[in-house]
What we know:
Helix 2 runs antiparallel to helix 3. This protein has helices at residues 13-20, 27-78, 83-141; strands spanning 7-8, 11-12. By secondary structure, it is mainly alpha-helical.
Amino acid sequence: MAKQPESLLGMDITKYVGDLKIPGIDVETVVASQRKNIEALTQANKLAFEGVQAVFKRQVEIIRQALEESANVARELVEAGTPQDKAIRQTELVKEAFERALANSRELSEIIAKSNGEAFDLLNKRFTQVLDEIKDGINKMKPH
């Protein structure tokens, strides 16, 4: 992962926080923790973006497939046959299209759920680490 800049709008965060001179606060630890937070958010955003890309790619594939199938269906329905045969085939085609639409919706939902789950897990892990870091910081401040 790329090293995060230590300045925000040209301001050296370490120096600024260090100038506050808060007793018992290790500035380097605070800055390192915030850097980890930014890295976790960056990674979570990357995972979310990859999920959106996967959904979009799959939607394009579904549309392409639907267009091809529509052309085949149109040819099939134009072919000779009794009105009853055509009605039966139309009913079968509607059923197949409905089942395919449900399967596609389920697949897209699973892609989204997987992406969201990965991002959530990453942020949850970082949140737990932050709580541990806070606890460790408090323990370091205790008189021994």
